[in-house]
Amino acid sequence: MSEMFDAVDALVASRSALPSAEERKRLRVAHGLTLDDVAGALHVRRATVSAWESTKKPTEPRGPEREAYARLLKQLAELYPAPVPATFTGAPAPAEAQPLSTGPASEAAVMTATENTQTPAPAPVAVAPAAAPRPASTTRPTSSTSRRPGAKKAAPAGTPAGGTDPRFENGPLAVVDVEDGKVLAYCTGGLVLDVPAKSLPSLVDWTLKEAKLGQPKLSGPGRPADPLIVLTEAACERYGLPVSLTAEEKDAGRIPEGHKVVKQLVRAEWKLTKRGFGPWARIYRPAKGSDRQCVQLCIPSWNALDARFWGDAAHLPPAELARVLGVYASRVMTPRGSTAVTGLELMTALHPPTYAVRDEETGALRQAETKTPGSLGKDPVDCAPCEAPDGHPLLADLPRFTVRGPADKLFEEAYDWARPMTDAECTLRYLVGLDVNMAFAAGANGLNVGLGEPTHVKNPVFDPKLPGSWLVDLSHVDLCRVKVGKEWVELDGSLLPSPFTPKGDRPTGPAWYATPTVAYAQELGYDVAPIEAWVRYENGRYLDGWYARLRDAYLATMADLGVDADLSPEDFLAAMDGYKERDPELTIVVSAIKATVKGGLGKLRERPRGEGWRPGERWRALERPTWRPDIRAAVISRTRINLHRKIVKHAAFTGQYPIAILSDCVVYAASGPSPLDFLPYREGKPLPGGFKLGINPGLVKHEGTQTVLWGEEVRDKFNAPELNLARSIKDGTVTDADNGE
Questions:
Q1: How far is CA 620 from CA 112, 192, 467, in A?
Q2: Residue 514 contacts residue 469 (beta carbons within 8 Å)
Q3: R_g of the chain, CA atoms, integer Å
Q4: How many CB atoms lie within 10 A of CB 132?
Q5: pTM of the predicted model, to two decimals?
Q6: Could you give the CA distance from residue 213 to residue 194 in angstroms, rounded to a whole number?
Q7: Separation between Cα atoms, residue 552 and residue 697, nearest integer Å
Q8: Could you say which residues of the chain have pLDDT below 50?
Q9: How many Cα atoms are found within 13 Å in the side-chain-facing hemisphere of 277?
Q10: In this structure, is the dihedral angle defined by the CA atoms of residues 274, 277, 281 and 284, taken in order, positive or negative?
Q11: Mean pLDDT across the chain
């Protein structure tokens, strides 16, 4: 009988109408599946699945592939019904998922690397006009549970408005303040709520039961975002919290467990994460089924909003702070900690470790035991020994004080390279800096990374499509003669940095490299013969969705500031001039988005943070599935390589060479002060594969201009012919002899 039923199912599937191309893609993305995942399951090519989802002219599957595809779509449609359309002002409202890190929030210093200089085509971004005014006043309901008044004012540019989900109709967050003895919650869109809570436990209760705060989930397998409550100094005093932390509390990252407010929470049967009650406290009760009770607190006066990444946000009035955090929440996700923590959480929100499945007997939903396709799963995996940073448990058997060299350790880091100027360059008047937009985000776009544990291979054949770390000798690659496209070109290799080392030095023997670096050696026209490798056969484009969301957030916010993606080079330079002054609050959002990229990638290789750690012992970050130094290395590798590719193409076409590179900034000597004075534009079109002015990630903007005389003077002053001028090109300020950022 089962064979007969299977035949009937196949017959029905073969004649059933399939959903639209848009719906096919929505269902795939909702379940966290990539095109490769579907193609592998159905035994077809990736391009075939892409054609099935094409909105221009979709093709229709045939034969057994159609039957299997129809079955897949039907099951996904049951799990992810089509959403009710929502209306937003500004960018679409996002959401997020379960917290990942139990350790203190940290801005892992990451990427001093150059960002990918590809030119990805951005998805269309709907934005409000940049000139839209901010609301002059707020709207306050008469009770804490009131909805927004029917006659609403138009929200300002970049201000998120509530969606149609009744659970979150008041937005993702609220800034709680005290005015004239009354506790008020400033929400997004100008809404203000009265808060009846007299204690912190009752504030948590009110937030979950009455405030209607939160956001829908970012992906099908994920969870809705927990509400965020931001406490001003006045609110801290009202609820018995210190306005600022003592030096001891700052070092610990929390107030003591014996604090009266912590005791209040314990008596009310609320729990804190292992992080304790710090600047980003999470207060929760264990979930019962789908009933999740969790509130995220943010306390700016405890340095929750680090000025390096959030500018003056901590000092804004409540309504303005709600706007800044609300725009960030709607375009990225509700903050879960520092920008670094949030960047990492965004990866998991888009690819949750597990997904819900329906029990065939009871009909109830439960979490699957296996990991969501395309995710990193819920369990950590060990890195390869060459990928392990010093002090990692994998290296515990090494003799004390061992110094690992390139043949022992993968060292994919950002460029920090400079050279003396030539006599010809000294006759020019200016030094012009170019900065790559959202470089590390662009470096992650389309990058194939490992999803599982590494496999050790001896004498492997190099595969540019296989993520991994390769021990290979690239010292034979000669930059004086390389392939650009399909043609060999002659260059002055002494004026170019090596693409294989962060300092630009030519390798002297075998060293460990990530896949993009080795693939570039082949692209330049040279053979490679790896000695050994650690490769990851389970792989995928894990960061694509992460890149797309951050790209869209960046482009939408820059458009609100008057910098659009389709401007001519001249108009783009003009629009970038003074854009930060047009709306300082949205400028803060731009800074936070950039920090989310770099910090999130940095936390993929987070180091110990005190905790009494000793070399050879495990540290807390190693227990996360997102502790993946190999992914970080691959992004940096690809970022550095793509910048080098543009530099080589520019040199081959113009004969111009960079004099300094720092991370995503490159400096050239030029006859004029503008990038247009040396970039080879013809009729408004840039050199194919070279530098292109524009706001899209991977394109470049003007970082700054100084004179050649200035450059020579500061190098003479510090007696450093190779002082990295890229570090100071923006404003000309040089404080010491190149001792780091």
A1: 24, 40, 26
A2: yes
A3: 27
A4: 17
A5: 0.80
A6: 14
A7: 10
A8: 84-137, 139, 141-163, 737-741
A9: 22
A10: positive
A11: 86
